[in-house]
Amino acid sequence: MAISVDAGTMNLVKAEEDDLVNGITFTLERNAFLQASTSEDTETTLKENNWSYVKHEDKYYILGEDAFKLKNLLTVGSRPENQGIIATQIGELRRPMQNGVLNTGEEKLSIAIIQKLIEKLAGKPRKPGEVLCFCAPSDPVNSNLSVLFHKSILTSFFKSLGWEVECIPEALAIIYSERPVAEDPNSDEKEAPYSGIGISFGSGMINIMFAFKKIPLISFSVTKSGDHIDQEAAKVCGLNVSAITRYKETKFNLDKIDPSNMKDAALEIFYNNMIDNTLSLFAEKFNQLENPIDVPLEIVVAGGTSMVPGFLNKFNAVLKGKSLPFKVKGVRAAENPLYSVAKGCLIKAMSVEGKKAKEETK
Amino acid sequence: MTYVVQNTTDKTIFLSDLKAEIKPRGMLDLEMVASRNNIEISRDLHNAFKAKFLQLGKHTIIHTNASPKHKELEPNPIDEKKLAALIKSVIREEIKSPDNADIKRTVAESIDSLHKSIREQINSIKISEKISEIASKELNIDPEKLAEISQRSIEKISDEITSDENKQLGKKHKLNAGNLKKLADEI
């Protein structure tokens, strides 16, 4: 049975088909871990609380959502009176991916721990020849990040688990799952499916793909996305990044900006800037196309950073104020913005498996 | 930062303090055999770089249009101690003036976080500088080749990791598949 994995900076998502109920099961896990302090009863405590953990040498590491919850539960802030009491005991939450790719600055142990986490999530194929499709970012236009290194590491890791591995660009997965359609006067059906612009606003990166009839024509990524917004807004407001992230995820609404609220004002500016910058970069790339496409194009947005209430209205407002070299048919959010990429990868994995099966029966 | 080195000579090189052996013209990820701390302080590695028997591998992306940004060094760069003193004086000023506990706390928290992040960055620069200082010439390695070498050392560490096999990970969310099969046939 084909499966897919979307390894994002913030979340890991696995998707698999559930034949019995004609459904897809998505499994979401945080892409992070926390080192536990080691004592005689550490392992007992971890087991009693049913926390996910791994052990390396004599050290214990709590994985995924459990690490996140524990960190939030036990962090009491760094007020002077609390210094050295609790914050230093629970350690820092480690996120071995940065800007959409594996952080090569991290110790190899961190990458090994995250691979264990992915292994627990994806598992091994039940029989040989089963396909796993994952996504990788496109080449970034504003950074010299090593996308190829990231892609190669994950490919070789999934192969070591026994999967037949496929890898597609992250935003192409949105095109596969959301199936944007453009007019095509030259075809019998008068329409061209899988033609449009897919944009994934993740926490580490923004990935953009323009495809026409499934063929990728423009594909690139930008590193300044959700995490960048949080960091910049935190600087402006003089707050911790985690405080801004919490505010953004729980209270922030782009439709209800209170200009007297510093957090609202800062976040809106950086959201505005992110959308504007993405559209400008895309327009620049579009202008470089040898054969310009003049049919109106649909834009589909997905990813965790696009899930803030009011995002679509903000996107449309910025779009309206820009002079672009193409016509826009409409903008819509993916059916499930957090799962759209994993679903697109699953479609690809099923397609590859289906084609293989057909070839074998010939 | 990677710790992949290539032997530039036709003889096997032994780094006895790291218990590493690098075959003629061969490459090795030093993290396969030692921790980053031990690599950084290895005398044998230092000498091999100085004698140009070894080259340090690095990988860069070649598909980007972005030009790398270089920061000019300030003539009199601020060091960690000066920075800490500066931050402390800012905190003292902030705490003295307004009579608002929330503001005081917020400022203290943010400065503390800033200080910590700067300290981490200074440390990472120090480590990187150490290895680049001694490795006179860096070698560009094909990222796929480098990933293959790195994955081998990750697998070695991974073999030493034990985990609780019974615990299921992640939150499950079931959705209607809709026309999933049709879409898979179409693409």
Radius of gyration of chain A: 22 Å
| Mean pLDDT reading of chain B | 71
Morphology call of chain A: globular
Number of helices of chain A: 11
Task: Please give the order of strands in the largest beta sheet of chain A.
Answer: 3-2-1-10-11
Report the count of strand segments of chain B: 8
Rg measurement of chain B, Å: 25 Å
Beta-strand percent range of chain B:
15-25%
Overall outline of chain B:
flat
User: How much of the polypeptide of chain A forms β-strand, as a percent range?
Assistant: 25-35%
Could you please say which CATH topology of the largest domain in chain A applies here?
A: Nucleotidyltransferase, domain 5
Distance between the termini of chain B: 39 Å
- Helix residue percentage of chain A: 25-40%
| Spatial order of strands in the largest sheet of chain B | 4-1-5-6
Descriptive overview:
The complex is a heterodimer of chains A (362) and B (187). Chain A is 39% helix and 25% strand. With 362 residues, chain A is of the alpha+beta class. Chain A folds into 2 domains: 3-172 and 348-361, ATPase, nucleotide binding domain (Nucleotidyltransferase, domain 5), CATH 3.30.420.40; 174-340, Nucleotidyltransferase, domain 5 (2-Layer Sandwich), CATH 3.30.420. Chain A has a 5-stranded mixed beta sheet with strand order 3-2-1-10-11, sandwiched between helices. In chain A, strands 16-15-14-17-18 form a 5-stranded mixed beta sheet, sandwiched between helices. In chain A, strand 8 (97-98) and strand 9 (101-102) form a beta hairpin. The radius of gyration of chain A is 22 Å and the shape is globular. The model of chain A has no long low-confidence stretch (mean pLDDT 89). Chain B has helices at 36-41, 43-50, 80-96, 101-134, 143-159, 180-186, and strands at 4-7, 13-15, 20-22, 27-29, 54-58, 138-140, 161-163, 171-176. Chain B is α+β, with helices and mostly antiparallel strands and 187 residues long. In chain B, a hairpin with a 4-residue loop joins strand 2 (13-15) and strand 3. In chain B, the strands form 2 sheets. Chain B has a 4-stranded mixed beta sheet. In chain B, helix 3 (80-96) packs antiparallel against helix 4 (101-134). Chain B is 48% helix and 16% strand. Among the domains of chain B are: 4-63 and 135-159, no CATH class; 80-123. The interface between A and B is large, with 81 and 55 residues. Strand 3 of chain A pairs antiparallel with strand 8 (171-176) of chain B, so a sheet runs across the interface.
